[in-house]
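queue> pop job 88
queue> type: inverse folding (structure -> sequence)
queue> payload:
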């Protein structure tokens, strides 16, 4: 990993989408409710934070990358333990600083453990009113900027991911993506891309515009089977198992 040069984020709710490419699997397996937090807010993690929460295995400074590449290039093995030993030679010990979200993990778990996005928002607002905590206020702002529909879809996706295999998560996310692209449920994806990447006015007009107007049926449709004209994602599971 590139240390401080590395930034990790899943900011899809800010463009009216949902974390995909297997994100609902690995985010759902992070400690506590950190996966829900990252999926809903799109907050960024540095390399040190990725090590702390288990998203990364090794931490090294950018200046040491040429040495790492040279060392790995000399290896003639597929033994994970040999590769692991080689990487450890260049590892650095580092800890999250006082600005890291890891420092707020107790409050984060308390607020993001609730069943619905509305309850998560209520919990954050309650904490902010009691403590005037800057982290709570900042988190509420991130949620306010995101697509209400995407927030609900992403929360369910992460919760489902805890009980599914990676293959199942990938197949489901593919289905969700096609439903989101279709514009039959909402135009939020196109509107989010317009607001953040095309016009860059950062003023998306979400549809529905608020959490209370996002119906259960709208969320359910993201997880519904595709039509007969849109085949489900088929992964090479049998071929992979044959070589395992």
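queue> result:
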């Amino acid at each position: 990993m590139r240390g401080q040069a590395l930034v990790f984020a899943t900011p899809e709710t800010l463009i009216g989408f949902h974390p995909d490419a297997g994100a609902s699997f690995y985010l759902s397996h992070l400690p506590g409710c950190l996966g829900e937090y990252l999926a809903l807010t799109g907050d960024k993690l540095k390399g040190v934070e990725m090590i702390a929460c288990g998203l990364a295995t090794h931490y090294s400074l950018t200046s040491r990358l040429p040495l790492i590449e040279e060392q790995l290039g000399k290896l003639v093995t597929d033994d994970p333990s040999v590769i692991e030993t080689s990487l450890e030679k260049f590892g650095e010990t580092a800890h999250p600083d006082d600005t890291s979200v890891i420092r707020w993990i107790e409050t984060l778990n308390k607020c993001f453990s609730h069943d619905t996005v509305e309850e998560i928002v209520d919990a954050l607002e309650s904490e902010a009113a009691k403590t005037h905590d800057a982290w709570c206020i900042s988190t509420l702002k991130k949620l306010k900027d995101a697509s209400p529909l995407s927030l609900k879809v992403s929360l369910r996706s992460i919760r489902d991911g805890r009980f599914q295999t990676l293959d199942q998560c990938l197949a489901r996310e593919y289905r969700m993506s096609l439903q989101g692209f279709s514009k039959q449920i909402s135009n939020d994806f196109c509107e989010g891309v317009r607001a953040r990447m095309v016009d860059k006015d950062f003023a998306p007009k979400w549809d529905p515009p608020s959490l209370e107007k996002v119906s259960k049926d709208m969320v359910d449709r993201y997880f519904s089977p595709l039509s007969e004209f849109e085949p489900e994602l088929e992964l090479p599971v049998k071929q992979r198992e044959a070589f395992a």
